[in-house]
Amino acid sequence: MYAKVIKLTNMNGIKYDHAKIEKKWQEKWEKEKIYFPDLSRPDNKYYNLWMFPYPSAEGLHAGHAFASTGSDVFGRFMRMHGKDVFQPIGYDSFGIHSENYAIKIGEDPHKVVRRTTKHYEEQMRSLGHGYDWTHTVTTSDPDYYRWTQWLFLKMWEAGLAYKKKATVNFCPSCKTVLADEQVVTPAAAGKEPKDAAGKSITNSEELKVCERCGTVVEKKDLDQWFFKITKYADRLLEGLEKIDWSTRVKLAQKNWIGKSQGMLIKFETENGDGEIEVFTTRPDTLNAATFIAIADEGLYNQESSEKVGEFTGKYALEPFSKRRLPVWKTNYVAPGYGTGAIMGVPAHDERDMEFAEKYHLDIVQKDPDKNLWQEISEKGFGKKHTNYHLRDWLVSRQRYWGAPIPMVDCPECGWVPVPEKDLPVILPNISDYKPEGTGKGPLANHKEFYQVKCPKCGGDATRETDVMDTFVDSSWYFLRYPSSDRESVPFDGEVTRNWLPVDLYFGGAEHSVLHLMYARFVTKVLFDLKLLSFDEPFPKFFAHGLMIKDGAKMSKSRGNVVNPDQYVSKFGADTLRLYVMFLGPMDASPDFRDSGIEGMQRFVTRLWKLFNQPNTIDGQPSKGVVSKLNQTIKKVTEDMYNFKYNTAIASIMELVNTISDKGSNEEVLRSLCLLVAPFAPHLAEEVWVEVLGQPFSIHKASWPKYDDSKIASDTVTIVIQINGKVRSQLVVGNKQSTIQGDIETLSRKDENAAKWLKGHDIKKVIFVPGKLVNFVV
RNA sequence: GCCGGGGUGGUGAAACGGUAUACACGCUAGGUUUAGGACCUAGUGCCCCUUAAAGGCGUGCAGGUUCAAUUCCUGUCCCCGGCACCA
User: Fold this and answer.
1) A278-288 pLDDT, tens digit each
2) Residue A726 backbone phi and psi in degrees, to 5
3) Is residue A428 within 8 Å of residue A443, measured between CB atoms?
4) What dihedral do alpha carbons A448, A449, A455, A460 form, nearest 10°?
5) Do A277 and A332 meet the contact criterion of CB atoms below 8 Å apart?
6) Three-class secondary structure assignment of A59-113
7) CA of A721 and C1' of B58: distance in angstroms?
8) Nearest Cα to Cα of residue A254 among A267, A236, A272
9) Sorting pLDDT into bands at 50, 70 and 90, what band is A219?
10) Among A2, A416, A423, A596, which is disulfide-ready with A616 (CB 3.0 to 4.6 Å)?
């Protein structure tokens, strides 16, 4: 088939028609179902999951392409290792993002989501990802949210869902409450901080804003639904020990859970009219306590950076010595944490010291006494106690675009769950879906929705009009994918047992304490309910970096969002895939630039020409080419497992350079094609089938193996160092390079080295076989 | 403040005890082309030097360990991220 061509010259005539070839194989892959594994046969299962996107109006941007390609490349790599890779995709389509956009353009969110999900699907197909399009999930579909509501009922049955009046975070712009986890620093939100009127705030120090819109949150006392995630605090902490996640993400969760062990200690007030209980992690410093500080909501909410206090006029008694400790109201004690009261120990706590100095309180120097831990509990003054930073998960939202909470408030029976058989509670189509910020959601204006009969007693009752937080939708979606075709259950027992947990979860680190913790919590609850056989959903999670453009995180507000479509149509999906994977390691934050992608296009063209007009040599390729090929297979294979696709591609480029220079044969080209396949699936398939004449499909072919014995090349360069400085080099035979005597002799004969050795005593010789020799003189 | 992750050419980056800058981008010169583009060839850290050879200096900064340090250790500065008056 190949003519004998010595030099790669005059290849300008060969064009790679990416549009035609990519379309051709995308259709063939779908027709032949090569990415649709048979879920009834799980022997070689590999569940490869990328965090599903919320379908925005703008569509996927290049950052999505970077992340999703990273996931897809690994899925292809595993498929070429004989795994039945299940790689599903879906849409996190409920929630404020989609709803706010619908409000902005004045269109029904149902319609908006239908349009945006369609656009996403087209974009993801155009990138050539190996998704199983027969198992997609859309969280705003009644078929899906029916089971989100089912999950709520399970929480209720397990005693883990409750409604309670509490001081909660409220976003005046989104006109809804937020979970603690959704209240973040402006930097984390990636937004300019704004006040309730939408004006930018420049003094952004220590501000807490809405994760969605960047508006400074307010505190309100409202009746809200919570999930008791605090009950799982310890289990969530312990589970971190057994999962393969980066320390960075694990620590973020650990910090968020914020476990601290200490004691609750009671102080009687002076005139015997009560007692004050404090939480402390340092009961051993009780002897040095000089005052009691209690939280004051009013002072606390003033958000003063300086410590402020007011003396209450009361005194509390230190339990052992009965010392009189003044009781102060302050702003530096958090009301919601511990007992909302602390003992002030200026000698052992900087903050207490600052306060004591400001208000001229006593400062007592006493050494800590470890025995106090025991003595306090023996005397009954206090007891050991563990506190957590983690709060219960606030799941209700006074919005429209979410799954209605399936509960009914009956004047006779109290809160009654909607029976499972009556699910889903359909979200009605209404036109007045804008939030009003009255503390009630838009559904509260619709009698036809909330006027119901009590499922228990049949009397008149009121349906809950709040909907669920989007993070409830996404807390269990990975369970639904393999069972998306089941109508009568949220997830099928057998399929779930066979295909879960997820083998590799690929996603952004920004979800460290939101989605990832909620999903772990929900999994543990379902495990306890004996509905799952595992209690960690994602034993391996890889956090990719966030793509940068012009030095800043891509975001619509900055106007630096790159749409991949134009690059797909101009350069093709393969070039774009290779380009974004080549930018840097997957966990870095690559900067997208146009000039780079043109360079990658050159590489793709070179590849295409190399395969179509190869400089084939008759018979066996040189040993140098064989050794380079084996080195490359080894390097690429190792890099793939570490998500260092950039260096994997670099070594493939090196191999291409070597082949261009020294020639190849069909066997070498086949291996090269296989190495390229995960990155450039279309080009590789075209070459594999049409040029190399191999059976369809390369994506089910075996990943090439390397032969250790063929890695070594004929000659090796040995570095000669004198006192650790490189002075010369020797090119010697492979065998000779490991013989110290030979190398020493050759080094002395080497002109350059001899110059440095002349007139010196050699004190020591360090020899690293096959690498270097170092003379110490 | 505490806890993570980082500071390497003009740029993205590689090496992570053993030739610092692989692989690319960009740039310079030459070839090819009617021209441009594309493509091909050569060069490209800094200093000294007409050039080359040879040499010196170079991985934020200052020390240390080692025959040998971007890599290990100590101190320090800066950037990014998480948590935070959480007692």
Assistant:
1) 999 999 999 89
2) -70, 120
3) yes
4) -50
5) no
6) CCCHHHHHHHHHHHHHHHHHHCCCCEEECCCEECCCCHHHHHHHHHHCCCHHHHH
7) 18
8) A236
9) confident
10) A2
Protein-covered nucleotides on strand B (Cβ within 7 A): 3-5, 12-15, 18-20, 22-26, 37-40, 54-56, 67-69, 80-87
Nearest to A555 by CA among A51, A50, A64, A52: A64
Place of tokens 């895939």: A577
Query: Which of A568, A572, A570, A564 shows the shortest CA–CA distance to A592?
Result: A564
Task: Please name the nucleotide lying closest to A639, CA to C1'.
Answer: B14
When mean pLDDT is compared across A369-373, A573-577, A593-597, A719-723, the lowest value belongs to A593-597
Q: Strands, E, within A110-196: which ranges?
A: 137-138, 161-171, 176-178, 183-184
What distance in Å separates the CA atoms of residue A310 and residue A77, rounded to the nearest whole number?
Answer: 65
Per-residue confidence (pLDDT) for residue A618, from 0 to 100: 63
Cβ atoms within 10 Å of A649's Cβ, excluding its own: 23
pTM: 0.91
Q: Using the structure, give the distance in angstroms from the CA atom of A191 to the C1' atom of B62, rounded to a whole number.
A: 39
Distance, Å, A613 CA → B32 C1':
20
ipTM of the complex: 0.93
Nearest nucleotide to A595 by CA–C1' distance?
B25
Nucleotide nearest A280 (Cα, C1'): B87
Residue nearest to nucleotide B13 (CA to C1'): A584
How long is the CA A723 to C1' B26 vector, in angstroms? 38
The CA R_g of chain A, rounded to the nearest whole Å, is 33
Nucleotide nearest the Cα atom of A726 (by C1'):
B19
Map residue A317 onto helix, strand or coil: strand
Nucleotide nearest to A591 in CA–C1' terms: B12
A371 token code pair: 């025995």
CB–CB of A225/A162 below 8 Å? Answer: yes
Amino acid identity at A691? V
Categorize the per-residue pLDDT at A557 as very low, low, confident or very high, splitting at 50, 70 and 90. low
* CA distances for A573 relative to A70, A75, A123, A440, angstroms: 13, 17, 10, 47
